[in-house]
Predict the structure.
Amino acid sequence: MSILTDLFRIPKFVAGLAIFLTIVALGLVGPLIYRVSPTDIVGPRYTPPSPSHPLGIDALGRDVLAQLLYGIRGSLLVGAVAAGIALGLSLFLGTIAAVFGGLVDKVIMVISEVFIIIPSLLLMMVLAAYLSPGARNIWLVGFVIGITSWGGWARGFRSRTMSILQSEFIKMAILSGASRVSIILRDIVPIISPYILASFAMLFTSAITAEVGLTIVGVGMTKDITLGLILYIAQLYANITQGIWWTVVPPTLVMILIYLSLYLVAISLDEYFSPKLGTA
Amino acid sequence: MSTILEVKNLAKIYEIGYIRKRQIVAVDKVSFSVKKGEIISLVGESGSGKTTTARMILRLIKPTSGVIKFMGRDIWRDLRGGSDLRWYWRNVNGVFQDPFSSFNPTHRIRDFMYRAFNLFNEKLDRDTKERLVREALQMVGLIPDEVLNRRPFELSGGMRQRVMIARIFLIRPMLVIADEPTSMIDATLRLGILRLFSKLREEIGTTIMFITHDMGLAYYISDRIMVMYRGKIIEEGTPDEIVNNPKHEYTRNLLDSIPKLYTSWFK
Ligand SMILES: Nc1ncnc2c1ncn2[C@@H]1O[C@H](COP(=O)(O)OP(=O)(O)OP(=O)(O)O)[C@@H](O)[C@H]1O
Ligand SMILES: [Mg+2]
């Protein structure tokens, strides 16, 4: 695979991927190695970092490192659920709109417009009013973020598809009896695959950020531990003003690193492929 | 000989520009018919509307007005649904002018060739398909093992044109619309490939419409030549009629531009 070896020569890409994979490893393996429950009360509140509790203890007497490791896991899961939903919807609807055109296109564009306008905050507030607090878990929050973030990307996929549809090789495919589904799957998707990867990375980061935003303002996660929930608790007990840095700095740092690493991956993919495939 | 293709008052007007709309009459009420088994050339300068005409016959762009009938069926009115269209493209297919943009850059040559089996009604097993594809590639002078697993950017323009022609030999349609099919193929190979088209006609009675700006080439291969100028067909006749007795000023200019060497070769 010459593409992979090429990509691995781009420092931005390698750095981004390495940081991201490290964080993923922390979330996956961390809780298995550091076997402290994130919900148990392990000592007096606000104990500063010490050898027995490397990141100290939070306002509720829980181990912050355990919280952080589970929080990374939770946030990554929210990101994956939301990005999966948003990418699936935007890719499916965007390419269908472009390839089928006409009424199908119009209907999809109107729906995407509606979902561009609805912010996840609004939808989450409405749901928060109806659902019991315990229902606000990773899946629900991921779903809400996913369903409210596909609209713009659907338009992006649609316009890229439209420009590819002008190509001579699409006409050649039609002359070979290719169906519209085959044109989407075999002609369009392989060509826009770098853009798909880049969009997944961006959706992922923005979903993780969105979860933190929703949870901090009090309409997000209540059940599962995420980076957002750690920061929410820290903020609820005014940790920053009290100088309790160990509940705030680590999750914020991880957030920034996730954001930065995936951003690096996304832009290096786009920079590498766009000129090559003429899809800039 | 019976008429296989009938074109009546065919026109295509492109509208360009968003604010100030401008109209380009690419094809201007063209009428002609093609007999089964005939080799007919459409000759004209760049921008005269040849490709647009070809695209409409291939049912890739919708005419602004006019009728195209293939074997008595109006291709824009009487063909409905996937199976009618597959029937049409099994019988009418083409070679495109630009061999660079006619291949999906992510596909291998094998994918490109195999896709044409969509048009086949008969169910073929993998071995038969592979054999047919290889035979078609060999006919145009390509070595199957050297090209099948390659991607288009690994082949030259001439090789890609030959792959497109091999695709035609695989499909074996009744009517071939070949738009500048050999422009990038070496002169030494070109004649051989053109002869293959004649062979296709001998074998299965294929009708061929050649599109070219090269009057010398048209003279050499055609039964009949149509001269196109600014969207209109201004002259039509056998090669000898056109060469010996051109009626239109524009045709005379085209004839003057044929290199002498070329004419003396082919006469
Ligand atoms: N999609 C399009 N939109 C607008 N104008 C077009 C389009 N396609 C072709 N034209 C115009 O229509 C006219 C005829 O073009 P066409 O490609 O049919 O010519 P041609 O005879 O094939 O020329 P060439 O020998 O260069 O291939 C030209 O003026 C061209 O600019
Ligand atoms: Mg042309």
